[in-house]
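Private note to self, pasted from the team thread so I don't lose it. Backbone tokens:
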């Protein structure tokens, strides 16, 4: 299981991600047909949607965590954690240009379009019973904050750890995103600009936490868990 030194960054990234999603994902959230008018019933329906989204995040976290474990076994765990921290700081300084750079990669636009087409088809053809599936696909949409969280999952050095890291990231996005639907609130441009100012700050904090973790990483604990080959003398 991830240590508190990874869970706290995951939750902070989730909070930053929810600020980002208010502007990026808010329209999609408001487009999901709601079968009830009572706030508690709306909350339950949206929790189904967000469960699908968080499940996708967790699956991606498992993949990246396993990749990170492989790199750690190669002796790169300290470098990996420091690199993840530098990556976060870089994203904080670059605002969201990084997201634009990633989406410009060959083939990425086609993949994104297929995901959007899938979501659109679910909204048109079977919206009332496809809330969970829409959430699953939404987790695949391009998002700079998800990329940042995956860098953290990569530095978790394990499949389970990476999956739990991304699950906590998803949980961190819940409070603000639930408010969007429960109160049917679409924030104006001026409000979105103000709350997005907090994103670089949160990313910077997470970057510093990961850097500190990498610089203070006790490699002896990791090495003690890896069997060493040797010759027995008789």
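Design output:
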């Amino acid at each position: 299981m991830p240590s508190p030194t990874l869970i706290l960054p995951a939750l902070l990234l989730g909070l930053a991600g929810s600020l980002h999603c208010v502007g990026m994902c808010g329209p999609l959230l408001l487009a999901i047909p709601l079968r009830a008018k009572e706030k508690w019933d709306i909350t339950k329906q949206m929790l189904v949607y967000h469960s699908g989204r968080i499940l996708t995040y967790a699956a991606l976290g498992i993949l990246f965590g396993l990749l990170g474990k492989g790199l750690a076994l190669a002796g790169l765990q300290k470098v990996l954690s420091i690199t993840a921290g530098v990556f976060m700081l870089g994203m904080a300084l670059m605002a969201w240009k990084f997201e634009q750079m990633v989406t410009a990669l060959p083939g990425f636009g086609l993949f994104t379009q297929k995901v959007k087409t899938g979501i659109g088809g679910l909204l048109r053809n079977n919206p009332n019973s496809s809330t969970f599936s829409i959430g699953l696909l939404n987790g695949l949409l391009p998002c700079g904050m998800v990329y940042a969280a995956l860098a953290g999952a990569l530095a978790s050095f394990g499949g389970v750890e990476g999956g739990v890291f991304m699950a906590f990231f998803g949980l961190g996005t819940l409070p603000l995103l639930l408010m969007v639907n429960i109160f049917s609130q679409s924030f104006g441009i001026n409000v979105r600009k103000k709350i997005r100012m907090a994103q670089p700050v949160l990313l910077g904090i997470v970057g510093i936490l990961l850097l500190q973790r990498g610089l203070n990483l006790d490699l002896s604990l990791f090495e003690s868990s890896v069997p060493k080959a040797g010759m027995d003398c008789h």
